[in-house]
UniProtKB/TrEMBL annotation:
Residues 28-60 are annotated as: Disordered. This is Conjugative transposon protein TraN. Keywords: Signal. The lineage of its organism: Bacteria, Pseudomonadati, Bacteroidota, Bacteroidia, Bacteroidales. It comes from the Bacteria. It comes from Parabacteroides merdae. The keyword Transferase does not apply. NCBIfam families: Bac_Flav_CT_N.
Amino acid sequence: MKKVILMMAFAIGMTGAYAQKTVKVEKTGNDTEETTDSGETETMPLPDKEDARRSPSTGDLFDGLTRPVAFDRMVPPYALEVTFNKTVHLIFPAAIKYVDLGSADILAGKADGSENVLRVKAALRDFSRETNLAVITDDGSYYTFNVKYADEPTKLNIEMKDFIHDGEAVNRPNNSQEIYLTELGSESPLLVRLIMKSVYDNNKRLVKHIGCKRFGIQYILKGIYTHNGLLYFHTELKNASNVPFSVDFVTFKVVDKKVAKRTAIQEQVIVPLRAFNYVTAVDGKSKERTVFTLPKFTLPDDKQLVVEMNEQNGGRHQRFILTNAELIRARVINELKVK
Protein backbone atom coordinates (compact mmCIF):
# COMPACT_ATOMS: atom_id res chain seq x y z
CA MET A 1 0.00 0.00 0.00
CA LYS A 2 2.83 2.38 0.82
CA LYS A 3 4.40 1.66 -2.56
CA VAL A 4 1.16 2.58 -4.34
CA ILE A 5 0.90 5.87 -2.44
CA LEU A 6 4.53 6.75 -3.21
CA MET A 7 4.05 5.97 -6.89
CA MET A 8 0.95 8.20 -7.06
CA ALA A 9 2.74 11.09 -5.30
CA PHE A 10 5.68 10.79 -7.68
CA ALA A 11 3.38 10.82 -10.72
CA ILE A 12 1.54 13.91 -9.46
CA GLY A 13 4.86 15.71 -8.88
CA MET A 14 6.14 14.95 -12.39
CA THR A 15 2.87 16.09 -13.94
CA GLY A 16 3.06 19.44 -12.12
CA ALA A 17 6.67 19.93 -13.14
CA TYR A 18 6.04 19.50 -16.88
CA ALA A 19 2.68 21.21 -16.95
CA GLN A 20 2.40 24.45 -19.01
CA LYS A 21 2.63 27.56 -16.89
CA THR A 22 -0.12 30.18 -17.27
CA VAL A 23 1.20 33.74 -16.95
CA LYS A 24 -0.85 36.91 -16.63
CA VAL A 25 0.86 40.21 -17.42
CA GLU A 26 -0.56 43.50 -16.24
CA LYS A 27 0.93 47.02 -16.77
CA THR A 28 0.71 49.32 -13.80
CA GLY A 29 0.89 53.11 -13.69
CA ASN A 30 4.51 53.26 -12.46
CA ASP A 31 6.07 51.85 -15.68
CA THR A 32 6.40 48.29 -14.27
CA GLU A 33 5.00 44.97 -15.38
CA GLU A 34 3.29 42.61 -12.89
CA THR A 35 3.52 38.92 -13.81
CA THR A 36 1.03 36.67 -12.03
CA ASP A 37 1.58 32.96 -11.83
CA SER A 38 -0.54 30.64 -9.59
CA GLY A 39 -1.36 33.45 -7.21
CA GLU A 40 2.20 34.64 -6.92
CA THR A 41 3.20 38.11 -8.26
CA GLU A 42 6.67 39.29 -9.28
CA THR A 43 7.59 42.79 -10.51
CA MET A 44 9.81 43.23 -13.60
CA PRO A 45 11.05 46.78 -14.49
CA LEU A 46 10.72 48.05 -18.06
CA PRO A 47 13.87 48.86 -20.06
CA ASP A 48 15.56 52.06 -18.91
CA LYS A 49 14.86 55.23 -20.97
CA GLU A 50 18.58 55.92 -21.19
CA ASP A 51 19.01 52.56 -22.93
CA ALA A 52 16.27 53.55 -25.36
CA ARG A 53 17.99 56.85 -26.10
CA ARG A 54 21.26 55.08 -26.80
CA SER A 55 19.62 52.83 -29.35
CA PRO A 56 19.09 54.02 -32.96
CA SER A 57 16.32 56.62 -32.81
CA THR A 58 13.35 56.84 -35.16
CA GLY A 59 12.76 60.48 -34.27
CA ASP A 60 9.67 59.74 -32.18
CA LEU A 61 11.21 59.69 -28.70
CA PHE A 62 10.20 62.94 -27.00
CA ASP A 63 9.19 63.63 -23.41
CA GLY A 64 5.87 65.32 -22.81
CA LEU A 65 3.48 66.89 -25.28
CA THR A 66 5.43 67.65 -28.46
CA ARG A 67 4.26 69.21 -31.71
CA PRO A 68 6.05 67.95 -34.81
CA VAL A 69 7.75 70.41 -37.15
CA ALA A 70 5.91 70.65 -40.46
CA PHE A 71 7.80 70.33 -43.72
CA ASP A 72 6.87 73.85 -44.77
CA ARG A 73 8.94 75.09 -41.79
CA MET A 74 12.04 73.21 -42.88
CA VAL A 75 14.90 74.79 -44.82
CA PRO A 76 15.80 72.19 -47.46
CA PRO A 77 19.56 71.60 -47.57
CA TYR A 78 21.70 71.52 -50.68
CA ALA A 79 23.60 68.37 -51.62
CA LEU A 80 27.38 68.73 -51.46
CA GLU A 81 30.08 66.19 -52.29
CA VAL A 82 33.63 66.49 -50.95
CA THR A 83 36.81 64.47 -51.33
CA PHE A 84 40.23 64.20 -49.72
CA ASN A 85 42.45 65.11 -52.68
CA LYS A 86 40.45 68.09 -54.01
CA THR A 87 38.95 71.25 -52.52
CA VAL A 88 35.37 72.39 -53.12
CA HIS A 89 34.83 76.17 -53.21
CA LEU A 90 31.48 77.79 -52.38
CA ILE A 91 31.05 81.38 -53.59
CA PHE A 92 28.43 83.36 -51.66
CA PRO A 93 26.90 86.71 -52.66
CA ALA A 94 27.92 88.35 -49.36
CA ALA A 95 30.62 88.13 -46.71
CA ILE A 96 30.56 85.02 -44.51
CA LYS A 97 29.76 85.65 -40.84
CA TYR A 98 29.24 82.14 -39.43
CA VAL A 99 30.20 78.56 -40.37
CA ASP A 100 29.26 75.38 -38.50
CA LEU A 101 30.47 71.84 -39.29
CA GLY A 102 28.37 68.84 -38.40
CA SER A 103 31.37 66.63 -37.60
CA ALA A 104 35.16 66.48 -37.70
CA ASP A 105 35.05 64.50 -40.95
CA ILE A 106 35.14 67.71 -43.00
CA LEU A 107 37.25 70.89 -42.95
CA ALA A 108 36.06 74.36 -43.94
CA GLY A 109 37.49 77.87 -43.88
CA LYS A 110 37.36 81.17 -45.73
CA ALA A 111 39.75 81.51 -48.66
CA ASP A 112 42.76 83.72 -47.95
CA GLY A 113 42.11 87.33 -48.91
CA SER A 114 38.40 86.74 -49.51
CA GLU A 115 35.33 87.23 -47.36
CA ASN A 116 32.69 85.41 -49.40
CA VAL A 117 34.50 82.26 -50.59
CA LEU A 118 34.39 79.13 -48.42
CA ARG A 119 36.64 76.15 -49.12
CA VAL A 120 35.52 72.69 -48.02
CA LYS A 121 37.27 69.32 -48.16
CA ALA A 122 37.25 65.94 -46.41
CA ALA A 123 39.44 65.48 -43.35
CA LEU A 124 39.35 61.68 -43.70
CA ARG A 125 39.38 59.36 -46.66
CA ASP A 126 36.12 57.55 -47.40
CA PHE A 127 34.19 58.67 -44.32
CA SER A 128 30.97 56.69 -44.33
CA ARG A 129 28.52 58.80 -42.37
CA GLU A 130 26.81 61.79 -43.93
CA THR A 131 27.35 65.14 -42.18
CA ASN A 132 26.13 68.70 -42.66
CA LEU A 133 27.38 72.27 -43.06
CA ALA A 134 25.66 75.59 -42.24
CA VAL A 135 26.65 79.11 -43.36
CA ILE A 136 25.27 82.57 -42.48
CA THR A 137 26.24 85.63 -44.52
CA ASP A 138 26.11 89.27 -43.48
CA ASP A 139 23.11 89.98 -45.72
CA GLY A 140 21.02 87.77 -43.44
CA SER A 141 20.93 84.68 -45.66
CA TYR A 142 21.15 81.16 -44.25
CA TYR A 143 22.54 78.22 -46.24
CA THR A 144 22.61 74.57 -45.20
CA PHE A 145 24.21 71.57 -46.90
CA ASN A 146 24.16 67.80 -46.50
CA VAL A 147 27.72 66.65 -47.11
CA LYS A 148 28.91 63.19 -48.13
CA TYR A 149 32.17 61.73 -49.42
CA ALA A 150 32.77 61.08 -53.11
CA ASP A 151 35.93 59.97 -54.85
CA GLU A 152 35.30 62.40 -57.72
CA PRO A 153 32.85 65.22 -56.85
CA THR A 154 30.89 66.39 -59.86
CA LYS A 155 30.84 70.05 -58.68
CA LEU A 156 34.03 71.62 -57.37
CA ASN A 157 33.16 75.33 -57.71
CA ILE A 158 29.63 76.37 -56.75
CA GLU A 159 28.14 79.86 -56.88
CA MET A 160 25.30 80.52 -54.42
CA LYS A 161 23.31 83.25 -56.13
CA ASP A 162 21.40 85.89 -54.23
CA PHE A 163 17.64 85.85 -54.74
CA ILE A 164 17.65 89.55 -55.68
CA HIS A 165 19.62 88.72 -58.85
CA ASP A 166 18.06 85.35 -59.64
CA GLY A 167 15.46 86.87 -61.93
CA GLU A 168 12.58 85.36 -59.95
CA ALA A 169 10.41 88.19 -58.66
CA VAL A 170 7.79 86.00 -56.95
CA ASN A 171 9.43 82.88 -55.57
CA ARG A 172 12.05 83.56 -52.92
CA PRO A 173 14.46 80.72 -52.18
CA ASN A 174 14.90 79.21 -48.76
CA ASN A 175 18.15 81.04 -48.02
CA SER A 176 16.37 84.43 -47.80
CA GLN A 177 15.61 84.11 -44.10
CA GLU A 178 15.53 87.26 -42.00
CA ILE A 179 18.50 86.52 -39.76
CA TYR A 180 19.39 89.46 -37.52
CA LEU A 181 22.99 90.37 -36.78
CA THR A 182 24.27 92.14 -33.67
CA GLU A 183 25.96 94.98 -35.55
CA LEU A 184 22.71 96.04 -37.24
CA GLY A 185 20.62 96.02 -34.08
CA SER A 186 16.92 95.45 -34.73
CA GLU A 187 17.22 95.99 -38.48
CA SER A 188 17.09 93.08 -40.89
CA PRO A 189 20.20 92.75 -43.10
CA LEU A 190 17.90 92.02 -46.01
CA LEU A 191 16.02 95.28 -45.50
CA VAL A 192 19.29 97.22 -45.12
CA ARG A 193 20.44 95.99 -48.49
CA LEU A 194 17.11 96.80 -50.13
CA ILE A 195 17.23 100.33 -48.70
CA MET A 196 20.77 100.91 -49.97
CA LYS A 197 19.78 99.59 -53.38
CA SER A 198 16.73 101.86 -53.47
CA VAL A 199 18.80 104.93 -52.55
CA TYR A 200 21.32 104.04 -55.23
CA ASP A 201 18.68 103.46 -57.90
CA ASN A 202 16.71 106.64 -57.14
CA ASN A 203 19.91 108.73 -57.35
CA LYS A 204 18.45 111.91 -55.88
CA ARG A 205 20.60 114.82 -54.76
CA LEU A 206 19.11 116.12 -51.53
CA VAL A 207 22.29 117.81 -50.27
CA LYS A 208 23.83 120.36 -52.66
CA HIS A 209 26.32 122.26 -50.53
CA ILE A 210 28.63 119.58 -49.13
CA GLY A 211 31.55 118.30 -51.12
CA CYS A 212 35.14 118.75 -52.22
CA LYS A 213 36.80 119.40 -55.58
CA ARG A 214 40.57 119.21 -56.04
CA PHE A 215 42.96 118.14 -58.81
CA GLY A 216 40.13 117.35 -61.21
CA ILE A 217 38.43 115.05 -58.67
CA GLN A 218 35.05 115.90 -57.14
CA TYR A 219 33.72 114.06 -54.08
CA ILE A 220 30.25 115.12 -52.96
CA LEU A 221 27.51 114.06 -50.54
CA LYS A 222 24.22 113.61 -52.39
CA GLY A 223 21.96 112.70 -49.47
CA ILE A 224 21.57 111.51 -45.88
CA TYR A 225 18.80 109.08 -44.95
CA THR A 226 17.71 107.42 -41.72
CA HIS A 227 15.66 104.38 -40.80
CA ASN A 228 15.34 102.34 -37.60
CA GLY A 229 18.48 103.62 -35.90
CA LEU A 230 20.76 103.60 -38.97
CA LEU A 231 22.12 106.38 -41.21
CA TYR A 232 22.65 106.07 -44.95
CA PHE A 233 25.18 108.32 -46.73
CA HIS A 234 24.89 108.61 -50.51
CA THR A 235 28.20 109.80 -52.02
CA GLU A 236 29.49 110.36 -55.55
CA LEU A 237 33.05 110.45 -56.87
CA LYS A 238 33.62 112.17 -60.23
CA ASN A 239 36.90 112.08 -62.12
CA ALA A 240 37.18 114.94 -64.62
CA SER A 241 40.83 114.20 -65.42
CA ASN A 242 42.30 111.63 -67.77
CA VAL A 243 44.19 109.80 -65.02
CA PRO A 244 42.29 107.00 -63.23
CA PHE A 245 41.67 107.47 -59.52
CA SER A 246 42.30 104.44 -57.25
CA VAL A 247 40.67 104.57 -53.82
CA ASP A 248 42.87 103.56 -50.92
CA PHE A 249 40.37 103.99 -48.06
CA VAL A 250 37.39 106.06 -46.90
CA THR A 251 37.09 107.15 -43.26
CA PHE A 252 34.31 108.75 -41.20
CA LYS A 253 35.60 110.40 -38.04
CA VAL A 254 34.32 112.85 -35.46
CA VAL A 255 36.83 115.61 -34.58
CA ASP A 256 36.88 118.88 -32.69
CA LYS A 257 35.96 122.01 -34.62
CA LYS A 258 38.73 124.04 -33.04
CA VAL A 259 41.93 122.61 -31.62
CA ALA A 260 44.03 124.82 -29.36
CA LYS A 261 47.76 124.79 -29.63
CA ARG A 262 49.60 122.15 -27.60
CA THR A 263 46.36 120.17 -27.21
CA ALA A 264 46.02 116.54 -28.17
CA ILE A 265 43.66 115.94 -31.07
CA GLN A 266 40.81 113.59 -30.18
CA GLU A 267 39.26 111.63 -33.03
CA GLN A 268 36.46 109.08 -33.00
CA VAL A 269 36.39 106.85 -36.06
CA ILE A 270 32.97 105.58 -37.14
CA VAL A 271 33.25 102.37 -39.12
CA PRO A 272 30.59 101.86 -41.82
CA LEU A 273 28.45 98.77 -41.25
CA ARG A 274 27.63 98.18 -44.91
CA ALA A 275 28.49 99.65 -48.32
CA PHE A 276 26.56 99.27 -51.55
CA ASN A 277 28.62 99.48 -54.75
CA TYR A 278 31.82 100.31 -52.88
CA VAL A 279 34.06 102.20 -55.28
CA THR A 280 37.68 101.10 -55.56
CA ALA A 281 38.63 102.85 -58.81
CA VAL A 282 37.20 105.52 -61.10
CA ASP A 283 38.42 105.78 -64.67
CA GLY A 284 39.14 109.08 -66.37
CA LYS A 285 36.12 111.13 -67.45
CA SER A 286 33.71 108.98 -65.41
CA LYS A 287 31.94 108.89 -62.05
CA GLU A 288 30.79 106.32 -59.49
CA ARG A 289 28.41 106.34 -56.52
CA THR A 290 28.39 104.51 -53.17
CA VAL A 291 25.84 104.17 -50.36
CA PHE A 292 27.29 103.72 -46.86
CA THR A 293 25.36 102.47 -43.81
CA LEU A 294 26.49 103.84 -40.44
CA PRO A 295 25.15 103.51 -36.89
CA LYS A 296 23.04 106.39 -35.66
CA PHE A 297 24.96 109.23 -34.02
CA THR A 298 24.73 112.97 -33.43
CA LEU A 299 27.35 115.67 -32.97
CA PRO A 300 27.84 118.14 -30.12
CA ASP A 301 28.22 121.81 -30.95
CA ASP A 302 32.00 121.64 -30.75
CA LYS A 303 32.31 118.51 -32.94
CA GLN A 304 32.10 117.87 -36.67
CA LEU A 305 32.13 114.86 -38.97
CA VAL A 306 35.02 114.62 -41.42
CA VAL A 307 34.74 112.27 -44.40
CA GLU A 308 38.07 111.58 -46.09
CA MET A 309 38.91 109.61 -49.22
CA ASN A 310 42.59 108.92 -49.89
CA GLU A 311 44.06 108.00 -53.24
CA GLN A 312 46.23 104.90 -53.43
CA ASN A 313 49.80 105.76 -54.42
CA GLY A 314 48.79 109.36 -55.04
CA GLY A 315 48.08 112.72 -53.45
CA ARG A 316 44.65 113.69 -54.80
CA HIS A 317 42.96 113.17 -51.44
CA GLN A 318 39.40 114.41 -50.92
CA ARG A 319 37.75 115.68 -47.75
CA PHE A 320 34.43 117.27 -46.77
CA ILE A 321 32.89 118.24 -43.42
CA LEU A 322 29.40 117.84 -41.90
CA THR A 323 27.91 119.41 -38.80
CA ASN A 324 25.04 118.30 -36.62
CA ALA A 325 22.70 120.62 -38.54
CA GLU A 326 23.04 118.44 -41.65
CA LEU A 327 22.70 115.18 -39.72
CA ILE A 328 19.41 116.03 -38.03
CA ARG A 329 17.89 116.91 -41.43
CA ALA A 330 18.33 113.36 -42.70
CA ARG A 331 15.47 112.17 -44.91
CA VAL A 332 13.27 109.51 -43.33
CA ILE A 333 13.57 106.35 -45.39
CA ASN A 334 9.82 105.62 -45.22
CA GLU A 335 9.32 108.18 -47.96
CA LEU A 336 11.23 105.99 -50.40
CA LYS A 337 9.67 103.21 -52.40
CA VAL A 338 11.39 100.01 -51.36
CA LYS A 339 10.31 96.94 -53.32
